[in-house]
Amino acid sequence: MDQVDPREAQMLQMYLNEYGQQMEILSQQLNLIEQQRLESLGAVETLQALEQSDDGEVLLPIGGGAVVRVKVLDPGHVMVNIGADVVVERTSSDAVEYLQDRITELDALGKKVAGSIEQVRGQVNEISRRLEAVYRQRGQPPRPAQGGQ
Description:
Strand order of the largest sheet: 1-2
Subcellular location: Cytoplasm
Strand content: 15-25%
Shape: elongated
Pfam families: Prefoldin
Number of strands: 4
Oligomer: single chain
Organism: Methanoculleus frigidifontis
Function: Molecular chaperone capable of stabilizing a range of proteins. Seems to fulfill an ATP-independent, HSP70-like function in archaeal de novo protein folding.
Largest sheet: 2 strands, antiparallel
Number of domains: 1
Subunit structure: Heterohexamer of two alpha and four beta subunits.
Order of helices and strands: HEEEEH
CATH class: Mainly Alpha
Distance between the termini: 28 Å
Radius of gyration: 25 Å
Mean pLDDT: 88
Number of helices: 2
Helix content: 55-70%
Low-confidence stretches: none
């Protein structure tokens, strides 16, 4: 390869930037999935603790690190958001089962998104190597990679 097309380096840099943006979006999605998973785990723990509670009293976070002690009037029933802002009443055991199923789904989705991140990372690495080779061939120092590495 004697001649290096300057458009190739420009195109590779563009791809590198786009893949960097994709990695950022996927990372944000993974963080949201993990946040939902942790919230669901916390809800399961709280419902199980409430079932074992003799007096039905729990600590309710109200924000800013403050909590109040409250007595749950009907610990056997829970309102559960099942999506699209639809809330249904379920027994505590049904709510725990629903939340555990949600956790399983979130785990699977998280693994899928993490796999996508690894695929994009592999593409970024390949493009970075190719871009370095192009710059070496042109006798120029490589530009720093932008976005997501």
